[in-house]
Amino acid sequence: MSSEKIVDLRGKRALFFYRQRPPVDKRVPLRERKRKLRLIALTVLFLIFAVGAFGLHYVSYMGRFSVNSIEVKGAATIDPGVIRQYVDHVLNDGPRHYLSRSNIFLYPRSVIEKDIVIDFPRIKSATLSRPSFFSTTLIVTVQERTFFALWCPDASKQGCYQMDDSGYIFAEAAVDNPAKYIFGGGLPSAPSTIGQVFAPSHLSEIIALLERFTQTAYIPEGAIVENPRDFSVPLKDRFIIKASFDMDPDTLIKNLQLILSNPPLRGNERNIAYIDLRFGDRVYYKMKGDTPVPQAQ
């Protein structure tokens, strides 16, 4: 017993049954760092955009950049106050838009110019401008349509309308409205006559023929479009001429003079109801109270 050795394990570290853990790498991976940087950059950009958007909205409504007066030029028949009120209503239409519609740099210029012509048929064109770059005065310059002829729905010449030289019908006519020419027909079926265009494909041909007639002894009253191919021309205190759109004005008048130089029409023009020149070498005519009679040229 006396030969045994004793080892005191108190206060000694365990040499067995213990494994030391490897050190932890606390560095952030490169991919994770890039992701965080992108997120921060996007956040900053969003804040810059939000502040900029709010600033743009705020500045667009500032009084120094808003239209505060509207002047109307060129209005003769239409009350300038009506046009002024119309433009003001477009600029201040009620809802608060993101950008002010009355801002001198952002107002809807082309829209207003187009809508004025649509909503005011008497106006042919409208132009919006400002006297200077920072001016808050808006100038509306309009050009009114010039009355050229009447368009009437029937031979009674009641309920007629005014039209310009392009055939555009823009206003009702007074009962005693004098006119160089009176036209009829040539309109598509529509709820309103105002805003339509009379014979847009043939008006220039019709006017050329009427002007050619004024160089003769015959005075044309106007023209009536019968269908897409034919029209008629009433001559003042005389008779009606029936013709087609593909006819040359000079040839038509030459044929008319030729047929009127032959009996039984010669010297009897006031008793003629109409002369039909639509069939080339064969001309039909009708005396008042009679049936149509063919006449070879």
Automatic annotation (TrEMBL):
InterPro entries in the record: POTRA
Localization (cell): Membrane
Domain of life: Bacteria
Transmembrane stretches, start-end: 39-59
Broad class of the protein's primary localization: membrane
One Gene Ontology term, aspect cellular component: membrane
Residues in POTRA domain copies: 65-145
Keywords (A to Z) from UniProt: Membrane, Transmembrane, Transmembrane helix
Coiled coil: none
Protein name (database record): POTRA domain-containing protein
Organism: Candidatus Kaiserbacteria bacterium GW2011_GWB1_52_6
